[in-house]
Amino acid sequence: MAASTSPNFSTSLHKNTPKPNYPSSLGNKSLHTKLGFSFSVPFNKSICVKPCGTAKYDEVVVDEELDKIRRLQNGSDVRGVALEGEKGRAVDLTPPAVEAISESFGEWVINGLEKERGNPVENVSVSLGRDPRISGSKLSVAVFAGLARAGCMVFDMGLATTPACFMSTLLPPFFYDASIMMTASHLPYTRNGLKFFTKRGGLTSLEVEEICDKAARKYANRFAKVSTMLNVLPTRVDFMSTYAKHLREIIKERINHPLHYDTPLQGFQIIVNAGNGSGGFFTWDVLDKLGADTFGSLYLNPDGMFPNHIPNPEDKTAMALTRAAVLDNTADLGIVFDTDVDRSGVVDNKGNPINGDKLIALMSAIVLREHPGSTIVTDARTSMGLTRFITDKGGHHCLYRVGYRNVIDKGVQLNKDGIETHLMMETSGHGALKENHFLDDGAYMVVKIIIEMVRMKLAGSDEGIGNLIKDLEEPCESVELRINIISEPRHAKAKGSEAIETFRNYIEEGKLKGWELDSCGDCWVSEGCLIDTNDTPTPIDAHMYRWVGSKLMKILAVPQI
């Protein structure tokens, strides 16, 4: 469905919200007439931007030109400003940049497959999904052009979710060699970005750095910065229906309802707040088809301007609106998705928001019932109360570097080292399970919670899902400060490190009574991590806390560039 033509529905009643027109055909039919969403850049035109900072083709280019692409890397993703409208920020995620990055990714995929198989490869397939941001149509053309230039077959999934893009490499009959998701998660409508997947999972920061470095040289050396001449148009496919069916089958099989196997959610009312992102499918294609009552759901219609609130389970407005809907409808559960559905949060039947430490505790309780003694990996920002909760349940708590990719990679490594680790989760809501390919999938997390909720009901409990975390210690008051570090992008990390080191010395000299500093990284921490200086290009994170009676104080510092 075209985000640019989606009406703005602010009504909270799911029954009055039209369902997006997800395509119903799987076939390999090329799009010679209609793509299903509007393009602001026609296919038969090309955009030419005069190069700056380079005099001759293939001449060594200046650092400024290369940095235009390199600065777009955000850990394991690419993110930038795609539309005018942000004060003090120029558009940097342009079609020329996106084409160069997509071409480099396509070449990287092809080279990797050739090394793996030991011979040249043909018909390398790459899928593209996107969230409803209004810049998505124009930038999609650049992705298609770049992948085609690299020699890849391109498949257009249209409106999709980040987890679905990865699953398109694994589920039949698709089995794509790689996938790209175009999204900037919960960031404003002016932003956009790219996430990359192969059958192994999401790319690492170092792999994305390699791709961006190659793309930077392509970008800087080209006179014609982008070409949207597509000789072969992308093939439009409906993968979301297959992905939704995959989730439905998991719920049916694991609940195994004794009375109505095919509709195990019959008798449950579940509110979904999609925040006008890509998560509406979970209501229509998962919950409704399993018999749930989803009346009262919020903002299911995709709208790339996000008119109601930021699609983010950490957003107070999003959680407050969902809480109100749960209480008004006496629902059993409320669900909040972020824009691309790789994160989620929930509200229990008593209206208690469950995100951050609470969500990690809830997932830990579920996982430790299924896998007693498992290690749980989290980022450094979790509390000592969560550590005690996990250990009291028989688990082990490993705190690691801030950044969802770091947390997931740590879990993968622990499993390789023979340490059973079934859950990796960040306080932002990114959570991955060993049983689900180590993929951070907000919808899958919710599936696990729903399954546990139904099992509790079948066992005779009416307490609701929140009862699982009743023993979690919580502070009466929590304070979080975000300290912006104003600097040029290239100097931001050094400035952040300097600030953290100064703060470290201040604490170690005992100038702030009662506070202690702990280390973070390749260590097991039993009492919480306070400082994290991530080795990836961005960002710097500092985190500390102190229990004063029942009060928890927090400080979090991140660079603003």
Q: Could you tell me the mean pLDDT?
A: 82
What fraction of the residues are assigned to beta strands by DSSP?
15-25%
Number of strands: 22
The amount of helix comes to 25-40%
Taken from the alpha-carbon principal axes, the silhouette is: globular
Largest sheet features: 8 strands, mixed
* Residue runs with pLDDT of under 50 for 5 or more positions: 1-61, 518-561
Q: Given the helix and strand composition, which structural class is it? A: alpha/beta
Question: Top keywords for this entry?
Answer:
disordered C terminus; alpha/beta; globular; disordered N terminus; 561 residues; 8-stranded mixed β-sheet; single chain; 5-stranded mixed β-sheet
Summarize the structure.
This protein has 561 residues and is an alpha/beta fold. It contains 13 helices and 22 strands.
What would your notes on this structure say?
Residues 1-61 and 518-561 have low confidence and may be disordered. This protein has 13 helices and 22 strands. The chain has helices at 63-70, 95-117, 136-150, 162-167, 205-221, 240-255, 281-287, 316-328, 357-370, 384-392, 404-416, 442-458, 492-508, and strands at residues 73-74, 77-81, 125-130, 153-159, 178-182, 191-198, 201-202, 235-236, 270-273, 333-337, 344-347, 353-354, 375-379, 396-400, 421-425, 431-433, 439-440, 477-479, 482-483, 531-532, 541-548, 551-557. The radius of gyration is 23 Å and the shape is globular. The two termini are 34 Å apart. Helix 6 runs parallel beside helix 12. Strands 1, 2, 3, 4, 5, 6, 7 and 8 form an eight-stranded mixed β-sheet that branches. Helix content is 31%, strand content 17%. A hairpin with an 8-residue loop joins strand 20 and strand 21 (541-548). The longest helix is centred in the N-terminal third of the chain and has 23 residues, at 95-117. The chain is of the alpha/beta class.
